[in-house]
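Worked problem 6 (solution included).
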Amino acid sequence: MEMAAYILSIFRTQPMIVFSWGFHGAYAIKDGLCFSVNGYVHQGEVEVIYCEGVDLFKVNTLNADGSIKQQETDVYLDCLVKVIDGMVERTSNYKEKVKETYLL
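Solution. The predicted structure is:
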């Protein structure tokens, strides 16, 4: 539970990015946090797991059946939000997608 709260505190340092993922439904898992997103790249669940031995994080996007869709390992604390953003939201044409979504 402590690690989940710690990960949430990291997310609170960059709330606009986290909100852009459609972040919701967060809950504690063993050594981490799981939450749902609705991004341009990934829609579904994301796991962030702390790897104590190396003091780094592992990030998994999950398929609907719970299997791992994509995994990033050895993620440093200061890169966590950026790595998740790349897995969930950022595309090569991100600015155009935002304009399409929000401009009528």
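Discussion: Helices lie at 2-11, 15-20, 80-88, 94-102.
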